[in-house]
Amino acid sequence: MALKHSKQREMIKAFLMERKDHPTADVVYMNVRQKYPNISLGTVYRNLTLLSELGEITRLRVGDGVDHFDADTSPHYHFVCTECGQVIDLEMESIEKITDIAGAGFDGRIAGHVTYFYGTCGNCTKPN
Amino acid sequence: MALKHSKQREMIKAFLMERKDHPTADVVYMNVRQKYPNISLGTVYRNLTLLSELGEITRLRVGDGVDHFDADTSPHYHFVCTECGQVIDLEMESIEKITDIAGAGFDGRIAGHVTYFYGTCGNCTKPN
DNA sequence: AGTAATATCAGTAACGATTACTAATTTTAT
DNA sequence: ATAAAATTAGTAATCGTTACTGATATTACT
Q1: Can you give the pLDDT at residue A128?
Q2: pLDDT at B128
Q3: B122: which of A63, A102, A107, B38 fits an S-S bond (Cβ 3.0–4.6 Å)?
Q4: Same domain, yes or no, for B97 and B52?
Q5: How many domains does chain B have?
Q6: Which one of A49, A66, A114, A116 would you mutate to disrupt binding with B, by most B Cβ within 10 Å of its Cβ?
Q7: Is B1 buried (19+), middle (13-18) or exposed (0-12) by CB count in 10 A?
Q8: Shortest distance, CA B86 to any CA of chain A (angstroms)
Q9: On chain D, which bases lie within 7 A of the protein's CB atoms?
Q10: Are B124 and B84 in contact (CB under 8 A)?
Q11: Among B63, B93, B109, whose Cβ lies nearest the Cβ of A119?
Q12: pLDDT tens-digit map of A107-121
């Protein structure tokens, strides 16, 4: 099970790192294919899963039925625009304490939380 | 487009109301079929979607790849056990203010948030 | 460098959840 | 009772994702 180097995995990671939006597997596939035309969609999925298991990227589920991926693994929150579907990073004060709030009086052990915000993004609120 | 009464929809709603867990479409299907053997899975899906559009139930996406449904539409949060997969209601102090925190300095308009907590539930932490 | 072991690949088939289609049935207003 | 329209059962199709397979690439060891 020792990990071996792979050009495909490297390119997928590199592509994700140069994007500040949060591409889906299909978007990764389309783009990496520009430089490496015969990469397979299965390879993209396999490596995205592997990279997220390794903790090198984060898998984002924002309720739109498609997984998004983020090479920025530092803790931060996301905003999903209900108009255009974009997923944007939020710069905000920590809300980590909500895990403690939820844990108060709870029987089990809370390991963490998933939170995302939704609404209308800056672009979509602009008059046109 | 006027809504017409349907026994199927009524039974789906009634079933959801008598459950305090948060069944998936398939679980609804299995159970309603006990009383109404030739209901169709498509009918279950269609009515679950319709009911949630009407605001009579809530569709829950807790990252396990399957939608769960909740007849309790009052604002509350959920806990997902990573051991047994159960989805449980949390009774906790309001954390509504996180929407304001997220909105501070944000360009667009934040309409709301989705949050769920995960970890190990009371049952699964018990020694066995 | 050459070779063997094995991780990874491309390509494609399969999968599970959900949605769309269609002709038949129910509901509701007249 | 009748007609218009919503709803249904049943099934086919869709979509994102995962699994399979024989070929290729990477690494460890001579």
Answers
A1: 64
A2: 64
A3: A107
A4: no
A5: 2
A6: A114
A7: exposed
A8: 12
A9: 5-12, 16-20, 25-28
A10: yes
A11: B109
A12: 999 999 999 999 999
Query: What is the value of pTM for the model shown?
Result: 0.93
B49 CA – C23 C1', rounded, Å: 23
Residue A20: give the domain boundaries.
Answer: 7-70
For the CA of A34 and the C1' of C12, the distance in angstroms is 22
Question: How many Cβ atoms from other residues are within 10 Å of residue B56's Cβ?
Answer: 14
Residue B25 lies in a domain: yes
Asked if residue B51 is part of any domain, the answer here is yes
- Mark whether B22 and B51 lie in a shared domain: yes
Q: Which element (helix H / strand E) includes A24?
A: none
pLDDT tens-place string over residues B89-117: 999 999 999 999 999 989 999 999 999 99
Q: What is the pLDDT of residues B65-77, one digit of tens each?
A: 999 999 999 999 9
Secondary structure in 3-state letters for chain B:
CCCCCCHHHHHHHHHHHCCCCCCEHHHHHHHHHHHCCCCCHHHHHHHHHHHHHCCCCEEEECCCCCEEEECCCCCCEEEEECCCCCEEEECCCCCCHHHHHHHCCCCCEEEEEEEEEEEECHHHHCCC
Distance from CA of A34 to the nearest CA of B (A): 30
Residue B44 Cα, gap to closest chain A Cα (Å): 19
* CA dihedral angle for residue B8, residue B11, residue B17, residue B23, rounded to 10 degrees: -60
Per DSSP, the three-state class of A48 is: helix
Q: What local confidence, expressed as pLDDT, does residue A126 receive?
A: 79
Q: Please report the pLDDT score of residue A1 as a whole number.
A: 55
Task: State the CATH number of the domain containing residue B89.
Answer: 3.30.1490.190
